[in-house]
Amino acid sequence: MTDAARGAHPPGDAPTPGRRDDWFARVRHHAERWRRVLRVRVRLALRVWRGSLRLRVASTTVAVGVIALALLGLLLSAQIRDGLFDDRRDQVLSDAATRAELAQGQFDASTVSSAQEVQQLATDMVSGLQETSVGSSGVFLMRSPGSPAVILDPSTNDSLRPLISPELRERVQTEDFQAWQSVGIPRSDGGLTPGIAVGSAVTLPLAGDYELYLIYSLGAEQQNLDLLQGVLAVGAVSLVVLLLAMAWYLTRQVLDPVEQAARTAGRLADGHLTERMQVRGDDELALLGRSFNEMAASLQDQIERMANLSHMQQRFVSDVSHELRTPLTTVRMASEVLYQARGDFTPGQARSAELLQAQLDRFEELLADLLEISRFDAGAATLEAEGVDVREVVRRVVDLTAPLAQNRGSEVVLDLPAIAATADIDQRRVERVLRNLIVNAIEHGEGEPIDVRVGVNARAVAVVVRDHGIGMTAPEAEHVFDRFWRADPARARTLGGTGLGLAISLEDARLHGGDLEAWGSPGEGAAFRLTLPRRAGLDIAAKPIPLREVRSEPELEPPEDSSAANPAALPDLHPEPSTSHEEAKG
Amino acid sequence: MNARVLVVDDDAALSEMIGIVLQSENFEASFCADGAKAMEAFRSVEPDLVLLDLMLPGMDGIEICRRIRAESGVPIVMLTAKSDTTDVVKGLEAGADDYIAKPFKPTELVARIRARLRHGETQGTEQLLIADLAIDVPGHRVTRDGETINLTPLEFDLIVALARKPWQVFSREVLLEQVWGYRHQADTRLVNVHVQRLRAKVEKDPENPEVVVTVRGVGYRAGTPVR
């Protein structure tokens, strides 16, 4: 333990060797705490500083003003002080010289014969000098070394004698004429008043070489200087205050419209399209306001036009729907009547009736899908969500598609979690998506088994439909959700389909706040993953099951753990176009 | 005797086609293309069932529905091109029993018409009690303290279905199958609207139903007989 460290603490708290570690720990703890508190404060201050342009402008202005004024004040007061001092010094020196000459003259003219008389003469001289000279605090006669000690050194103020420094005396003794030095004269209140001590050599009769010292007070000058500095300081402070007020006012002038613009922009963004800025005057800021209002007006115009268009589009679609459906019903019924009677027709006529019937089905489907997609486009699609176990929905869809799968020789293998996979979903839509995915898988599965896997975690439910058929390339997988997109234009669509199925499925998934993703590899098959949040608006942090996976992991995590599932374990669908491309090549 | 069907539709081609299909199924079809003349036609034809297009010139289908209901309980099946709009609910609330969305197949149309004409085939002297109501099934009469309550055939079917199994809670899907004759999924709004209409007629206080009791999250069941 160093002395310094010990000295920093009261003796009672001094550590004994046994308590040393404890004490160190406490010190460290306190230091740490203070550092933390300080850091928080600094961070807070920084945030406030960054957050307010007005504060920055005002404080910068004030800081620069204070520095400039301080420099100016220092320079001015130094100049004045030096000027005052120089004046007074010159005056003092000439006064002292005159008096020394006068004194020497009197000494020379005196006719003293005894030490007593010399003493008397000297004493009278100093008191006389003291009385006649203005601003003199003390007069001294000091014997120069080498002169005989005939008399006692006379003075008018013995207490000031120590102010006459040996250096001054030496200079007086060596120089012919006069020497001076600045001194501080002690005041009764303990302070010092600046003064000047001036010394000249004189020769006393009988007593020989002496030095005559006069101490002049600069008290009056000091007072003047103090007063002046006081005035300067008051002026500087009022100037700073004025500067602060100016900065505040100016930033207000500029920033208030900016703030208003920001507020108005915020209101506009919130959908209050009629919100405008107040424009006053004809300056640059008024120009800002006017331009802003013009922008807002054009924005409002655009949005209203778009809303109008969207509304018209909706109306149009609805009207087309009605207008198309009535004749379609007639055609449909007529076709049905012909189809039922096809037994009485020639083979050509009978086949025509069949084709008419089949194509009408397709036409109807296409019309329904078109209307559905236009409902999404118009933003008119609504979710009728209720809490449903997705496993049940999957089972139902698999049951419904079982005849088709059987027909194609594909086995649908279900892999469902042991726990309920409940989620708030629109059953009709989710069923439609799953039916679409499973029928697609059967269509392209080439008789290979189809895996339907359901996974669930705390936030989301996912269904992966995987076939092991012809598959598709990564660029194809990127396009499967495009409207009317066909993987291979030359390939026949045996199961029909409108080309809108996956596009509608994707919209359905997104309407739930979920997602639909595709993966494929030629020869290996394709996989689609539908992910749905378990509650509306829930952010899906991690997908419950990977999109592509080897079927060797029958275990499904319980919902608590699976939320912590390593996201890196999931293959990214679209990490980067290049990666998925390589995936496709490999 | 063949059942008479009045087709109220302004589309001549569709009306004619419906007529062809109905006649092939041994129905007797009459037509009316103008909404304003629909009531006149209804009174002169005295149909067993009305097929009603919702969008008509003259008077709209919903208003016609309301007027027919005011004087008759005859089954009304709406034809609509907009099944997902509020028009359907309005039509049901005005008293239509069922609806068919365009485009429909002839078999679907015939099935719906037959389902609505099917009732009245009970025999014997079945008497049912539900809350404070007495139901005379073969007589098609519902009485409270000897006073007859007028119900449409559909409403009667609904209350009988519930009253026959007072221990059972009926889901909307089961009611759609038993009362409306739907084999597959159908619009549950049909059940909701008709339960409301039924309650308005048979409940003392429709706010606190005692005859048709809601079982939350499941469906409906019959109120316990008072006597």
TrEMBL record, chain A:
CDD domains per UniProt: HAMP (cd06225), HATPase (cd00075), HisKA (cd00082)
- Transmembrane portions of the chain: 57-78, 227-250
PROSITE patterns, per database record: HAMP, HIS_KIN
User: Any idea where this protein resides?
Assistant: Cell membrane
Region annotated Disordered sits at 1-21, 546-586
**The reaction(s) this protein catalyses:** ATP + protein L-histidine = ADP + protein N-phospho-L-histidine
- List the molecular function annotations (GO) for this entry: kinase activity
Gene3D superfamilies the record matches: 1.10.287.130, 6.10.340.10, Histidine kinase-like ATPase, C-terminal domain
UniProt entry keywords in alphabetical sequence: Kinase, Membrane, Phosphoprotein, Transferase, Transmembrane, Transmembrane helix, Two-component regulatory system
According to the entry, every stretch annotated as the HAMP domain falls at: 252-304
InterPro entries membership: HAMP_dom, HATPase_C_sf, HATPase_dom, His_kinase_dom, HisK_dim/P_dom, HisK_dim/P_sf, MtrAB_MtrB, Sensor_HK_Regulatory
The Histidine kinase domain covers 319-536
Q: What class of enzyme is it?
A: transferase
Q: Does the keyword Transmembrane helix apply?
A: yes
Q: Where is the composition biased (Basic and acidic residues)?
A: 573-586
Protein EC: 2.7.13.3
Matching SMART domains, A to Z? HAMP (SM00304), HATPase_c (SM00387), HisKA (SM00388)
Official protein name in the record? Sensor histidine kinase MtrB
Automatic annotation (TrEMBL), chain B:
The residues covered by the OmpR/PhoB-type domain are 125-224
Q: Which residues bind DNA?
A: 125-224
| Highest taxon of the lineage | Bacteria
Q: Which Pfam families match?
A: Response_reg (PF00072), Trans_reg_C (PF00486)
Record has Endoplasmic reticulum as a keyword: no
Q: Which residue range or ranges hold the Response regulatory domain? A: 4-117
Give the modified residues of type 4-aspartylphosphate: 53
In the record, which residues are listed under signal peptide? none
Protein keywords: DNA-binding, Phosphoprotein, Transcription, Transcription regulation, Two-component regulatory system
InterPro entries referenced in this protein's UniProt entry, alphabetically: CheY-like_superfamily, MtrA_REC, MtrAB_MtrA, OmpR/PhoB-type_DNA-bd, Sig_transdc_resp-reg_receiver, WalR-like, WH-like_DNA-bd_sf
Record NCBIfam families: MtrAB_MtrA
Name of the protein this chain belongs to: DNA-binding response regulator MtrA
Q: Does the keyword ATP-binding apply?
A: no
